[in-house]
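Comment thread on ticket #2218

A.B. wrote:
> Attaching the input chain for the structure job we discussed in standup.
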Amino acid sequence: MSLRLQLLAVGLLTLVLPWTGFRYVQAMEAALRAGLEQSLVASAGTVAAALAEQKAALCAAPQCTLERAGATIYAVPLAAEPELDGARDDVWNGVPAAPLGSGTEHRVLAGTHGRFVFLLIAVTDRDVVYQGAPREPPYGDRVVLAAEPMPGAPRWWLLNTAAPGALRAQETGPERFEPSEVYDARVIGAWQETATGYALEVRVPLNLIGETLAVGVIDVDRDGGEYAVDLAATWDGETGAPGRFIYQRPELLALLGQFGRAGGRFRLLDGDGWVLAAAGRVAPQATGGESSSLVARLLRWLLERDDPPYPAEQPAGRVADATLRQSLIGSSATAWYGSGPDREAIVAAAVPVVGPAGVQGAVLFEQASEPILTLTNRALVTLMTFTLLATLVVGAGLLGYATWLSLRVRRLAHAAETALGPRGEIRSGMPGAGAGDELGGLARSFAELLERLREHTEYLRTLASKLSHELRTPLAVVTTSLDNLEHEVTAPTAEAYLARLRQGAGRLDAILAAMSEATELEQAIRATAAQPFDLGAVIESCCTAYRDVYREREIAYRRAADATTVVGSGELAAQLLDKLVDNAVSFSPAGSRIDVTLGEAGDDLVLSVANFGSRLPDKMRGRLFDSLVSIRARRDGRPHLGLGLHIVALVADFHGGRCEADDLPDGSGVEFKVWFPRRTV
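C.D. wrote:
> Ran it. Output below, let me know if you need it in another format.
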């Protein structure tokens, strides 16, 4: 992994800051939730304490303390008094419909307004039969109401008609439900046929109902000449006792209204969870549009808790949530509902109302948690914004620093890789050596090491010239002494020894000459002025001379380029070709051909010398043009110090070109190539 990526990975550790901030906001939200729960419990407890001594308000009659076998009818407050016409107008919108009896499609809607109870009874009947002659069967389809305004004094009303329209209730009994023509003008209604049967809208004074109410539907259908009668009712089938009638009490509404506040709703529950009064509504407070923004929705999704949806009342008007119903057995309870990205969370607190006789009911206080969401959203937006901005700044700074540091390291690495030139020269200068940090110290150390190595290499390079100069004088003395001995010594055996000494001195002189040749040529190259010359003419002239020198080889020259003018030195180019041809002769068998070709490759001229013979050793391919490298092994009886191809490389470098060696494609020999940049004049 690169240094830049490593520092960038280190910079990613700053993401711990947003995560820590997010965890902090979560903890803050939990604390706010706990504080809101305590606040709601305290508010509900205040209302419960105010109601603790008002048992009469919670239970106005002894019936509320008794178990009722019949079905309960719950009436909700109506916004206005409905018009008695049998139609379901806007007043009834939102009023839940309760089933009338089991296994029937009849429905009853109940509501209160002022001093009256209003009932809308929807009956499904495929054959509506009306009242015939007064007090003579069949009595037709009819509806029965039962109530017990005073304990032990039940009252029954019969509602039937001879035709759709307004009607009055008749008093009846619990047995036959027959018309009595004893009308009660306080109980009135209106009958209207519908597509599925008929609807009956009834108004009854509250003081005639009390705490119990039951509704029964008597369905009379024609069956040939006879009539079939069916009864569906909410009272108990065995005892005929009506069920409970529960409605929201005005006096309790007035009491709860004193404690109401914006964004919250108080509800008073009886011992079975039925709502006796409700004040306020659960609605979010104004938040300045934050809840609709994309950022707020995203953050709310991050803070989303696994809260269940707000529970529906089962049946309508009765709180069925198991958590909240714990308050009905004497334990305070809190619950959260509806938290999510598209809905507001609601917190509810339920506190029991305890009287002298025990738990009489509960106070339920519900409030939207929008203030908490607003606080947490604002805190999270601010915290996340600053931490993410800090992360971006730190990441950008680390990335920039890593880029600059990586650039310095790459420059230093490139300088170290190219410190040794293609001809063995050493460049000791290192970039960034003036910096005061660790990389600057490393660059200075490299520069000092390379400078020492350059001095040592320069010493080794001039060593041959120095040795040649130092050894020539004693060698001259030895040679002169041998000449004198030839004239003084006359013994026959002395001539053989003198010949061997002269041969050794000659070889030593050849070695010294070869050692100084490269140094002298390098010095000559530095002093040579470059000028245009015709490389093709130089090569052609040299090849003509080679044919006379190397008669045992066939020298074949081919010119495959038109313009062959280059800038450099013709004499040095001739020496380069001398070394290449001499090398080719040394490694080719007698009678073989040596191909010399001058071609072109783009803007360069390419000189190629190929000979047939052995292939290049693999271990020597990269070192052929180095100084003092040779693989001839004295094939021609002369010492070879490996300076010929090194001279080729020096001359090629002087002309701005390059050289290389490789086996022929068919493996039958070796080919040397030298590139010369072509110049036109």
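A.B. wrote:
> Thanks. Noting for the ticket: The longest strand covers residues 183-194.
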